[in-house]
Amino acid sequence: NIKACIFDLDGVIVDTAVYHYKAWRRLANQLGFDFTEEQNEELKGISRIESLKIILNWGAVSKSDKEMQELATLKNNWYVEMITKMTPEEILPGAKEFLELVRTNHYLTALGSASKNSETILKQIGLMHLFDALVDGNKVTKSKPNPEVFLVGAKELNVQPEECVVFEDAIAGIQAAKAGNMKAIGIGRAAVLNEADLVVAGLFEMTIEKMENL
Ligand code: B16
Ligand code: MG
Predict the structure, then answer these.
(1) Is the CB of 183 under 6 A from ligand 1?
(2) Dist CA 155 CA 13 (whole Å)
(3) Where does Mg(2+) bind (predicted)?
(4) Is residue 116 part of an annotated ligand binding site?
(5) Would you tell me how many other CB atoms lie within 10 Å of the CB of residue 65?
(6) How far apart are CA 145 and CA 45, in angstroms?
(7) d(CA 5, CA 214)
(8) How many CB atoms lie within 10 A of CB 5?
(9) What's the whole-model pTM score?
(10) Is the shortest distance between the CB of 184 and ligand 1 below 6 Å?
């Protein structure tokens, strides 16, 4: 039976993908190329440096490791400038309510995000207090679909992977949850997240019953 819920951040709690896209696009444009919003979909759940490598590949641009670090920092500075202006109004529909609901029903909660900026975001939107554990890109080294981020979450909550449900909007994240032997609920479109145990449009559609009946 389920003891804990692990939530991805971008795409589940809040839509930071729009800010990532703006900042990455600014970087790409500066390097002399552009990429579409559809291409941006492929970057969801992927770490900062892995995202940069994919983008440089789209532009057929090659950079040294040192240059890549500098470009990633530049993008992150632009990104941080935007997320430090975020407000609680940007919380996705039903996210806060569902977090409160599961906690009232004595489930443990953890964040399982690839982002190194998760604390900044959670503070801005005022949801820090609803998580028993925070696991993000600062604590793990392996990018989703590797299950590390979720397994560390289970460990910090002192529960077994089989006792966890992961909420994820990215294919890589669903794969990570399944690889970690956890239940996975996709947030988005069923056609895209076909490896999930259940797909809902957003946390506003979630109930305790749906989670217990997986
Ligand atoms: P940062 P998630 C991911 O968040 C984003 O989906 C992905 O686009 C981003 O590159 C990654 O975080 C790293 O973010 O640059 O802030 O460290 O979906 O895992 O919550
Ligand atoms: Mg995500």
Answers:
(1) no
(2) 22
(3) 8, 10, 168-169
(4) yes
(5) 8
(6) 9
(7) 13
(8) 27
(9) 0.95
(10) no
Tell me, in angstroms, the distance from the centre of ligand 2 to residue 54's CA.
17
User: Longest C-alpha distance within the chain, in Å?
Assistant: 52
Distance between CA atoms of residues 126 and 87, nearest Å: 8
Residue 186 in contact with ligand 1 by CB distance below 6 A: no
pLDDT in tens, 68-99: 999 999 999 999 999 999 999 999 999 999 99
ipTM over 0.90: yes
132 part of the active site: no
Q: Looking at this protein, which amino acid is placed at residue 85?
A: K
Helices (H), the chain: 17-30, 37-41, 48-58, 65-83, 95-104, 118-125, 148-157, 171-179, 208-212
Q: Residue with the nearest Cα to atom 15 of ligand 1?
A: 48
Band (163; pLDDT cuts 50, 70, 90):
very high
Instruction: Give the model's pLDDT for residue 71.
Output: 98
Q: 194: closest CA among 165, 212, 172, 171?
A: 171
